[in-house]
Write a structure and sequence with these properties.
It is built from 19 helices and 21 strands. By secondary structure, the chain is of the alpha+beta class. It has a three-stranded antiparallel sheet with strand order 5-6-7.
Length: 611
Amino acid sequence: MEVILKHCIIRLFIFFFTFTDTFILTTLAEGVTPEEATELRDEVRGMFYHAFDGYMEHAFPLDELRPLSCEGEDTLGGYALTLIDSLDTLALLGNRERFAASVEWIGKHLRFDINKTVSLFETTIRILGGLLSAHLIASDYATGMRVPSYNGELLHLSEDLARRLLPAFDTPTGIPYGSVNLLHGVDENESKITSTAGGGTLTLEFGVLSRLTNDPVFEEVTKNAVRGIWARRSKLNLVGAHINVFTGEWTQKDAGIGTSIDSFYEYLLKAYLLFGDEEYLFIFQEAYGAAMNYLFNDPWYVEVNMNSAAIVWPLFNSLQAFWPGLQVLAGDIEPAMRTHTAFFSVWQRYGFTPEGFNLATSSVQHGQKSYPLRPELIESTYWLYKATRDPRYLDAGRDMLASLQYGARCTCGYCHISDVECHKQEDHMESFFLAETVKYLWLLFDLAAGPDNLIENGPYKYIFSTEGHLLPATPQISLVREHCSYYGAYCEGLEVRPESHASAIPSDRQDANDSRLYRIEGRPRFQSASTFLDSASVSGLIKGVCPGLTHAQRFGISYQALTNRIHVDKPDQREAAINQGHSLLVISSSFAEHKSSSDNNDGNGDSSEEI
């Protein structure tokens, strides 16, 4: 113990001495100049390639890199996780050659017909999101990164993967299981407890897939999950951390903005911004208002009992650090700036943010001393600089870059910090370090240097997924309600009739599920507006001008009260009564015929062509 303590003290002394000696002159400066920003941006680019090359040389095609021992390990499903998670970062950095080679390798070698039980949440945000983002970049000339040989292979893989995940949604509440086997569906002994974030952070990836494949089932099941969670909120409009997906009972009633809940809030707002669906905005307004009323202890956030609002946990946990960035998207800048200052003070104190910092004792929470290269504070720093152009955020970015370079850089990549009090390194590098942490840091300095990237200068507005993947607001994705992709186009209407279907859910569970799908003549109709809201349908084949953008589809957000709401229990707004104990899987008559996966290829090979 004495030796460990001595080691910690020595490392901290060296860190702060080196940090102060190296950066004291620039810290006292008025701010980072454009020239310095260019140098810092290039340094971050070097960080990415140090870690990415280390993974490709020592770990690929395994999931993740062990950067101290320079080995690989399978951590999620055994399908080149870090490469998939890094695809749109390669594109963002403008590396056409390696992006194209990576896309081609994945298209040839990746398979999901494997006997693996995987996390629904992690597989969705890392694998599905990574594949969809790369597909949208590789298939579009307007991005400047189109791959000439690409023929939609990543989209086909995305659809195959998503269909293998669908059995997780076969629950009475519509809230999905936390895990699913890619070959056999949900195990009969699978836990019925899932987190709010795990069940409510799927809408962006599944929604984009629905729009790209013209199959609404993916969007419907994830929207059902959000409704299932929100329907069980407390009278204070707070949600708990964990819930039973069969009974709908909360098993952990602590409400907060961090662990187990965080991205539920994030995807409410982002689903509205990307899809223009006002139901998500309505839920976000109520959820955000409750969070600011009951969780916000200016400038910190606490965890409270969801029913009584009594404080149960005066803790800052590192996942809360995404919140100021979300507030920027919502237009609530002032509290975002105050909270960022508080959160960053923890980073300054230790050189990193620990997983937990106790606000009552002003010390690292016992058992939560690690920093696993999380991106959330850097993400919020980027968004606040983008909104304010305040140089303090460049200074903060420079400090965080210095911490990572000195404290986390190791032989073949960047290491987890197992103890922020002594900067002890751990032999693991999460894929999100390349998908998010480096990406947001690079974007921050690129913005200051004079932006030259796909996000700032590209053809579309982009929404970042919770894994940092780029989802563009293209007409096909964001204007689906108009049934057309440009002003003055033809608008197609649909005739819908019920039909039996082949479901991704095992046949022996069909009776209990009692669900029906529909064949749709023409393109499927996406009910972008919810049953809570008035929405005009388009019928027949209309020649002429399509409806213009509504305020809900503009890239922004308004806090004005919505009017003319239709009450949810209006009988004509429901397709059919759902018997108690039956699944809430089907809630709309707009389902397309459910096609079973047609690929029966062999499992992943170990082929590791050079990329």
